[in-house]
């Protein structure tokens, strides 16, 4: 099975935070480093191998007016055809009529060229909105954006590079592109039961986005997996600083054991057990046995290990950026 | 525009600081009158006798140099990027810090703005009671001359009030500098201060330590760790216990951490590398965060089937084991209330030796308990139950 290539458009006004989020999720930036990013010229195009069977073709579209105008007019067909996902990023702190007007025009272009595309509106930089006002703010914005995109399949997220909301949104985005998710979930549930674990989660190894989970013991915190993505990704980066990769992590507190380890080539797995009689060694053994069964679902299609991720960091900032429009 | 936003947010959110408006400038409010977040969190009573025995650390510096930020990031777990919302400090704020037995402090955060004559006089008596003075100097600020003259005045004043005081200069906001600039900045500043002080009082020079710091990386935790260590009289004993442990278990490095503040209390005598400290303190964060997520459920579950769980769970202290791809192991173990031992080991010395390591750690924890018990008696702290 060859890897399926899916086109993702990343749009929104200049300074909204598009390149920031892409760099954090796919290129191992820490949030603070994004303050050094310059404005994107035209389009920065990257191919990201995501699991074995999926390649994300990510178009980071520069948000300055003259670029957007160009995308909507002269380049419309080139930009908007064959789009699987449109990610439209708004700056929560400054949402003006001009932004929603552009969004309306982008929605129209999607409707014309890629009617089946999924739309994700990311209202971003939520950290700058006063906590007490967030709920009301979100309600108003969501209604407004849903109205604009009513002909399309549209979902809203509230994000910030400073917390797990970014992982929440991007996990949802990539999950809608994974084809065999139901089979995967069923298999995962079986594994969870065999291990007598409370829950099991699979993360994509490089981004640490949540791929799938099975939960047997309910838990109140519905955002916990994204929080863990964020926590472990940060820790992986600090291990990298010591030029070491994180192979496995085992944390035991009062009466729960959390195990996180490399699973298949493309994924990591987390198991949580609250039954203290369960021995980590036994769980590890079960995971190793399960590994074979999961490989076809997760690692299928040839894996080119090292070129999994593009590293924009290695591109000198003065060098001209590759543009797909020329 | 940045400034505008800061103002707006300040008004919306109020400030993060405690309201001590009823106390005049430079008068330290009586102890026990209010509880600080840290002591609330660990649920230890702030009694009169207890707060008296806590060493005091005074943080001084020009307005906007980052005094409140340092204090809030290290002790109140405010995220560094949130410090832009901190309002200017208007009066002396006393923060009680009651974490592990070794981190029992009072942090005095004073306004950078000069107060009234009366308030300034009061500062002398405050300094008399302080064990350490931290002077924060902003490397990104233009008015170096003003900062230097304030630095000199403050140091001399503190020294005259209390010649046993430890003096720490934090060369702060160093995130703006490269590694090389950091070193240069530090040596140049030190030279200038030494020159100026030599004229007035050369004994004080030896009491000053310089450290470059930033709230955006580990440097402020590293620097504050060293400040706190200067105030721990049992440091030598702790270090030799760690040396013994490292020797017996063939470890590469071992740190004893205060869990809540993530300051390290002591380390063994093998060479110190900042990245080791960073990695160990990041592990503590992971341990706390994961523990936080999966403890709620435990509380609920524990209530449901109490008799079943009680015994097995109570005795289990927190542990973490990390395998790294360079054949190193990070091993974390809770050795006392809010005290964590974090060790770096080679895999070949870890695999197959876990029993021995655990035994030695237990011996270490027992020794530690004795030290803590003595400390509690001396400092009049309530003993661990
Ligand atoms: N406060 C806050 N700032 C953010 C957030 N995300 C990004 N930023 C900042 O926003 C600025 C602009 O980010 P970019 O990612 O370059 O913006 P962009 O959307 O790619 O802009 P163009 O390339 O011109 O279209 C950077 O300084 C980021 O640090 C966020 O969640 N909160
Ligand atoms: N870049 C950088 N900025 C910092 C650092 N520490 C503090 N700041 C910023 O410096 C500004 C002033 O910080 P405060 O902590 O309020 O300063 P202060 O010394 O308490 O000021 P007064 O209370 O008026 O005396 C804030 O906007 C902080 O975000 C740092 O390490 N690096
Ligand atoms: Mg950009
Ligand atoms: Mg202040």
Automatic annotation (TrEMBL), chain A:
It comes from the Eukaryota. Pfam families: Gtr1_RagA. GO terms for molecular function: GTP binding; GTPase activity. One of its GO terms (biological process) is cellular response to starvation. InterPro entries: Gtr1_RagA, P-loop_NTPase, RagA/B. Keywords: GTP-binding, Nucleotide-binding. The keyword Repressor does not apply. Gene3D superfamilies: 3.30.450.190, P-loop containing nucleotide triphosphate hydrolases. Transmembrane segments: none annotated. This is GTP-binding protein. It comes from Rhodosorus marinus.
TrEMBL record, chain B:
InterPro entries: Gtr1_RagA (IPR006762), P-loop_NTPase (IPR027417). Keywords: GTP-binding, Nucleotide-binding. One of its GO terms (biological process) is negative regulation of autophagy. It comes from the Eukaryota. Gene3D superfamilies: 3.30.450.190, P-loop containing nucleotide triphosphate hydrolases. One of its GO terms (cellular component) is Gtr1-Gtr2 GTPase complex. GO terms for molecular function: GTP binding; GTPase activity. Residues 1-54 are annotated as: Disordered. Signal peptide: none annotated. Belongs to the GTR/RAG GTP-binding protein family. This is Ras-related GTP-binding protein. It comes from Rhodosorus marinus.
């Amino acid at each position: 099975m060859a890897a399926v290539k899916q086109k993702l458009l990343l749009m929104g006004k200049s300074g909204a935070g598009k390149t920031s989020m892409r760099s954090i999720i796919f290129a191992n930036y820490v949030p603070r480093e994004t303050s050094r990013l310059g404005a994107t010229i035209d389009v920065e195009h990257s191919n990201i191998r995501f699991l074995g069977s999926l390649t994300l073709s990510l178009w980071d579209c520069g948000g300055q007016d003259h670029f957007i105008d160009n995308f909507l007019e002269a380049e419309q067909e080139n930009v908007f055809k064959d789009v699987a996902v449109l990610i439209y990023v708004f700056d929560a702190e400054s949402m003006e009529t001009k932004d929603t007007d552009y969004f309306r025009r982008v929605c129209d272009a999607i409707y014309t060229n890629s009617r089946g595309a999924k739309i994700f509106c990311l209202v971003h930089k939520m950290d700058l909105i006063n906590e007490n006002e967030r709920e009301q703010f979100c309600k108003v914005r969501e209604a407004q954006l849903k109205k604009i995109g009513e002909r399309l399949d549209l979902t809203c997220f509230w994000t910030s590079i400073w917390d797990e909301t970014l992982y929440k949104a991007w996990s949802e985005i990539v999950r809608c592109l994974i084809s065999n998710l139901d089979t995967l979930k069923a298999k995962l549930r079986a594994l969870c039961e065999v291990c007598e674990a409370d829950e099991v989660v699979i993360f994509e190894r490089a981004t640490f986005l949540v791929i799938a989970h099975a939960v047997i013991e309910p838990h109140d915190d519905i955002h916990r997996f994204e929080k863990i993505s964020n926590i472990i990704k940060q820790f992986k980066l600090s291990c990298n600083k010591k030029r070491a990769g994180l192979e496995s992590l085992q944390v035991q507190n009062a009466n729960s054991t959390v195990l996180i380890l490399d699973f298949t080539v493309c994924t990591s797995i987390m198991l949580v057990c609250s039954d203290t009689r369960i021995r980590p060694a036994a769980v590890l053994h079960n995971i190793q046995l399960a590994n074979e069964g999961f490989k076809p679902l997760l690692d299928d299609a040839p894996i080119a290990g090292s070129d999994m991720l593009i590293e924009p960091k290695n591109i000198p900032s003065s060098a001209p950026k590759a543009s797909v429009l020329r | 525009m940045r400034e505008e936003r800061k103002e707006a947010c300040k008004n919306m959110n109020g400030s993060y600081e405690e309201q001590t408006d009823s106390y005049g400038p430079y008068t330290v409010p009586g102890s026990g009158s209010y509880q600080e977040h840290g002591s609330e969190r660990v649920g230890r009573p702030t009694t009169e006798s207890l707060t008296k025995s806590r060493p005091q650390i005074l943080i001084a510096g020009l307005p906007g140099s980052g005094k409140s930020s340092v204090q809030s990031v290290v002790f109140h777990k405010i995220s560094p990027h949130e410090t832009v919302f901190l309002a200017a400090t208007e009066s002396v704020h006393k923060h009680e810090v009651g974490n592990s037995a070794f981190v029992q402090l009072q942090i005095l955060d004073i306004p950078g703005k000069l107060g009234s004559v009366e308030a300034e006089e009061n500062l002398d008596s405050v300094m008399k009671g302080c064990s350490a003075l931290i002077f924060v100097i902003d490397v990104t600020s233009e008015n170096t001359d003003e900062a230097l003259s304030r630095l000199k005045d403050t140091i001399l004043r503190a020294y005259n009030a209390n010649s046993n005081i430890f003096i720490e200069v934090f060369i702060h906001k160093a995130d703006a500098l490269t590694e090389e600039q950091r070193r240069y900045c530090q040596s140049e500043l030190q030279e200038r201060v030494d020159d100026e002080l030599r004229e007035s009082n050369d004994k004080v020079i030896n009491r000053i330590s310089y450290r470059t710091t930033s709230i955006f990386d580990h440097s402020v935790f590293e620097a504050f760790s060293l400040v706190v260590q200067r105030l721990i009289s049992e440091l030598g004993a702790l270090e030799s216990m760690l040396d013994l442990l490292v020797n017996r278990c063939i470890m590469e490095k071992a740190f004893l951490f205060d869990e809540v503040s993530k300051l390290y209390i002591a380390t063994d005598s093998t060479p110190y590398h900042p990245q080791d400290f960073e990695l160990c303190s990041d592990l503590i964060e992971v341990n706390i965060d994961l523990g936080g997520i999966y403890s709620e459920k435990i509380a609920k579950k524990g209530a449901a089937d109490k008799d079943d769980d009680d015994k097995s769970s109570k005795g289990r202290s927190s542990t973490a084991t990390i395998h790294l791809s360079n054949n190193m192991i990070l091993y974390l173990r809770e050795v006392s209330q809010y005290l964590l031992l974090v060790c770096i080991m080679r895999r070949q010395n870890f695999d197959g030796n876990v029993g021995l390591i655990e035994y030695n750690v237990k011996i270490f924890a027992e020794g530690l308990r004795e030290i803590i018990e003595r400390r509690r008696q001396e400092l009049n702290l309530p003993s661990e139950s």
